[in-house]
Amino acid sequence: MLRISCPHCGERDYTEFRYGGDASKVRPAHDSTDVRAWIDHVFLFDNPKGPHREYWQHVLGCRQWLVLERDTATNTVGRSWLARESAGEAGHG
Amino acid sequence: MASGPYRLASGGRIDRARLLNFTLEGRPLRGLGGDTLASALLAEGITLVGRSFKYHRPRGFMAAGVEEPNGLVTLGAGGRRTPNVPATTVELYEGLSASRQNGWPSVDVDLMALMTSLAAPLLGAGFYYKTFMGPRRGSWMFYEPFIRRAAGLGQALHLPDPDRYETRHAFTDVLIIGAGPAGLAAARAAAGAGARVMLIDQDFGLGGSLLAAPVQGRIESWRCTLEAELRAAPNLSIGLRTTALGVYDGNTVALLERHDHAEPDAHRGRARESIITVRARAIVYATGAAERPLIFADNDRPGIMLAAAVRAYLNRFAVAAGRRALVATNNDSAYATALDLAAAGVEVTVLDERARPASSLLESARGASIEVRSGVRVERALGGRTVRGVEFTAAEPDGRIERLEADLLAVSGGFSPIVHLTSHTGIKPRYSAALDAFVPGGYAPGHFGAGALTGSLTLGAALAEGAGAGVAAAAHAGYTRAVAPASIPALDELAGFEPSPARALKRGGKAFVDFQNDVTTADVALAHEEGYVSVEHLKRYTTLGMGTDQGKTSNVNAARLMAALRGVELPAAGTTTYRPPYTPVSIGALAGRQIGAHFRPTRRSPLHDWHLAHGATMIEAGPWLRPWYYRWAGEEVASAYIEEMRLVRSGVGISDVSSLGKIDVQGPDAAEFLNRVYVNGFAKLPVGKARYGVMLNDDATVLDDGTTARFGETRYFMTTTTAQAGEVMSWLEFLLQTAWNHLRVHVVSVTDRWAGMSIAGPRARAALELALPGVDVSEAALPHMGVREVELEGVPLRLLRLSFSGELAYELYVPAERGIALWERLLERAAPLGLKPYGLEALASLRIEKGHVAGLELDHRNTLDDLGLGKMASSAKPFVGRALRERPGLRAPDRWSLIGLECLEPQSRLRGGAILFAKDDEIKGHGRGYVTSVTWSTVLEKYIALALYQGGVRHVGEEILCAYPLKGETVRARIVSPVFVDAAGERLHA
């Protein structure tokens, strides 16, 4: 069982969280009509072996979305921080 | 005679004062406190303990622990009956009842043995594949009952389990798995360093292999001192009868704690078993090693046992498993067994495969009057229901076959470290030539190994490694206090070992590799001939390594054989992948308390108790329990919902809509936010109005629909469907916390905060006027889609004029704790207008008549256009999902999209899930669509349905076929508009 450090709540079982996908991708700007950019964002994932940044939400805790560093090869969990601190969409933040 | 003819007069770690009565197939027997079921049976002279899986050969105990392949029994009776329990792991208790398995009519007189000996040539490796696949597959039908009866172990039961199982969670700095010498040393060191330590062992005694040492010896007094020291340590907890089933990510370990010995009593809250999930900062594996048997003809005769097991029965349980013993070995460890047997008065001969055993061994043996025959090789066991002796090849040069009589044959083929748990972390075991077996290939960070697991088979090495691992584990967890070295008894130890060379046996007979699955050397050879090269293939072809023991005594021997047949080194034949659980675990323990009503949480409306008290029949809707229909309308749902529909269409009804998702949306950018997530415009929604909206996923499939009301400049109240409430909430939070973190908006789920009720029907306004005098609900004050916040006797009340049924309707929301009060007030005061409650079935049917889509239509594959909602999409603004809506596949004209259906056969009905076909189609395959929702229409007086159909409403007017293969039905129906009732919306605006 993965143990995830929530910046608010501390280290918890991953069963308190929901997974939210690749956090290294930047969402296209809201008004973007570039279908290719959206297809890339919604459907095309790299599935890397090794270090990965991904979104997790602490649904059974503070409900904050986090960015978590996880090694997909070893399942080793690294740092985490609030998504709102680093995320944004293309053209913002 | 207190407890059996084979019990020694003295010695053992048993309580001779505590006599325990138990039964075997009803036959009364007695054992002693501290016995296992196996040791008690051996003390009673019962050596035939089961029949083998395929051949029904007589079998006895081979081991004294979890690796036992043969001695599986069924314990208990009724709902507590448990099959396939190794008797070697069962702690004897008063009143235990056991029976042996797989014999017909009994294990003692097994006629199936004769039957299968005739069939034996057929039952070799690959039997199932060869006999039942391909052209002769039909023969399965003929043979199956015979095979099911002939091959197998205990019988599963079909009764409810009366016992209670618990789930616990634990945290520790250092978890030590295995309380043998290495584990004890590690526990002492880690606890001494200051760490919180959990020490667990599957046994009910502390000491592992030390418990098999003579009770009078120096080692035992040292063990007792150490046990006392550990039990006194405040930061050390000891869990006996506790097995580590599996090691998982995040240093999480699943433990199974057994309480069977304490006679569980569910009525007094005692659990039979508990699963403990431990999160440890560091883990020490001290799991030891399992002895391997030797391979020779008829090596499965009762009375042939692993040498370490013979020693454990002798020294721990004071049971001499025979009176004339042979000890066959390829290593030094079995000499301890021989010496202890001799000391107990058993006549012993050692048959050592090695040409030149260490001289110190020979000296000790001579001192105990033990004859040692070296350079010999056992060819065949003699005897049937019990071993009577062996034939062996004498030492070179003469190499002739000799015979020796015996009623006990102790065998040792070397030791295989228990690498199961370290393998669970994904680290492959590594071959050790010194052991001719596998050791851990490494350890995850914070994991440490010690003792026999690492291949260190001497006590001194186990203690030193254990102490080292304990210190390292404590340091990893952040505890570094210096620990005084432990006193270690002076030891003179030998761990010499020479792998048995692979060579053909000189005597015929079945030579077993896997005892539980009846896999012989001939089966392995056959698998090799047929092209199987790795043990992974061998396992699947022969079933070797499967079953309840998972090949704990057979995997390495099988790999050795396969390697020899292929002419390669053992590592090339590979090893199996070990997966949890290490030993079998009951389903009850895994389920814990999550059974029955506790299988998942149940959500209840604030009005729940009222419904129960007023004749509602409840139904599950996702996690919710909702009123299905009320008794006032009928005893059966089929008639009641129609009555309730009539009430709403012709009078006024009230229903509980508290389960709808409710989200409070606030902030200066709330309007902009809603305008982004809904496909239709929300930027200009005025205060005091609500709007129906649809949300898409990024991929342009429909996520959810609902209404959002604006109660203030920056204050909105969103409702979602019951089913999608959680998804929508998470999605809104995701957008606001990631891509749109610049928007100043907060969202909070208030689903549980508000009770919701819907009043619908032509008399809805009149009912409210009667029940809520002073609250203006006139057309002017509350027009269609108008909303108001008022106070009713100090209680906030939200009124929204919204309709799901197509009738004049209002949704009312009050704080949850005031829900029943408002509900009762409405029903009482509007009683003169005939106001009554209606349930989910009527609610759902009314919306079908009106063509409103709901969860059954929203299957996460359909687009706005598929659901006839395409016109809602704004062209004036971007919204989530807009870009990908334009993909050609989502614009294709033949997509399955929403239609209405009217049943054309008055004697038949439509059914949800029916497959739709065009009139001239062959009724075959997935058809052109399916029925999503069905109801009887009180307005049209016929069955109607919503459905998804290829091409959708372009086909209005066509007659199609609704096939329901489960009932063999095909019904004709006509495609119509999905809005069956009041398409112009006149009733809505009444």
Main attributes of the structure:
heterodimer, A: 93 residues, mainly beta, Folate-binding fold, four-stranded antiparallel sheet, 6 strands, 14% helix, globular, B: 990 residues, alpha+beta, six-stranded mixed sheet, 24 helices, 48 strands, elongated
Task: Please write out the topology.
The complex is a heterodimer of chains A (93) and B (990).
Chain A: E1 3-6, E2 10-13, E3 18-22, H1 35-43, E4 51-57, E5 65-71, E6 77-82, H2 83-86
Antiparallel strand pairs in A: 1-2, 3-4, 4-5, 5-6
Chain B: E1 15-24, E2 27-33, H1 37-43, E3 50-51, E4 58-59, E5 72-75, E6 82-86, E7 96-100, H2 111-119, H3 127-132, H4 139-150, E8 165-177, H5 181-192, E9 197-200, H6 218-232, E10 236-239, E11 242-248, E12 252-258, E13 273-285, E14 289-291, E15 304-306, H7 307-317, E16 324-329, H8 334-343, E17 347-352, H9 359-367, E18 371-374, E19 377-383, E20 387-393, E21 401-405, E22 408-412, E23 415-417, H10 420-424, E24 430-432, E25 437-439, E26 447-449, H11 459-476, E27 512-514, E28 519-520, H12 521-529, H13 535-542, H14 555-566, H15 570-573, H16 587-591, E29 603-604, H17 608-613, E30 616-621, E31 624-630, H18 637-650, E32 653-656, E33 661-666, H19 670-677, E34 690-696, E35 702-712, E36 715-720, H20 725-737, E37 746-749, E38 754-760, H21 764-771, E39 787-792, E40 795-800, E41 809-815, H22 819-829, E42 836-837, H23 840-850, H24 888-891, E43 896-903, E44 915-918, E45 929-937, E46 942-950, E47 959-964, E48 969-976
Parallel strand pairs in B: 1-7, 8-9, 8-13, 9-10, 13-26, 15-22, 16-17, 16-22, 17-18, 29-31, 32-42
Antiparallel strand pairs in B: 1-2, 3-4, 5-6, 5-7, 11-12, 12-13, 14-23, 19-20, 20-21, 24-25, 27-28, 30-31, 32-38, 33-36, 33-37, 34-35, 35-36, 38-41, 39-40, 40-41, 43-46, 43-48, 44-45, 44-47, 45-46, 47-48
Helix pairs in contact in B: 5-6, 5-11, 7-8, 12-14, 18-23, 21-22
